[in-house]
Amino acid sequence: QVQLVESGGGLVQPGGSLRLSCAISESIFKLNLMEWHRQSSDKQRELVAQISGAGGTYYLPSVKGRFTISREDAKNTVHLQMNSLKLEDTAVYFCRVHTKDGRSGWGQGTRVTVSA
Is the per-residue pLDDT at 1 higher than 90? Predict the structure, then answer.
């Protein structure tokens, strides 16, 4: 099981920014996919952003242009830069990774609250 630890959540006003980080217990070069998911109280968990080992990215349409997923290979860390935050971005954000040998893992989640 891959161990993941998220950080960076908090309370922010609409229009503000936050940067989430996910520290991964294994070398990032052993991973196929690195993802950020979120779950709010009234929705199922959804994939927000994804980055592949080759660097390809995917974004949920509602966050495209506002969120950026990136990798910091030397620190085995994945980030999610969130700009122009909206009330509807309020959720618990989870990091998830998939390894090249078929394992996966979830982090414990970090709460993001967007409120005036």
Answer: no
Q: Which residues contact 108 (CB under 8 A, 6 or more apart)?
A: 4, 5, 6, 94
What 3 state SS string does 25-64 have?
CCCHHHEEEEEEEEECCCCCCEEEEEEECCCCEEECCCCE
Which residues fall within 8 angstroms of residue 64, CB to CB, at 6 or more apart?
A: none
Which DSSP helix (H) or strand (E) runs through 99? strand 91-99
Q: Let me know: does 110 contact 38? Beta carbons within 8 Å.
A: no
Q: What percent of the chain has pLDDT over 70?
A: 100
Q: Can you give the pLDDT at residue 4?
A: 96
Dihedral angle sign, alpha carbons of residues 104, 85, 54, 7: negative
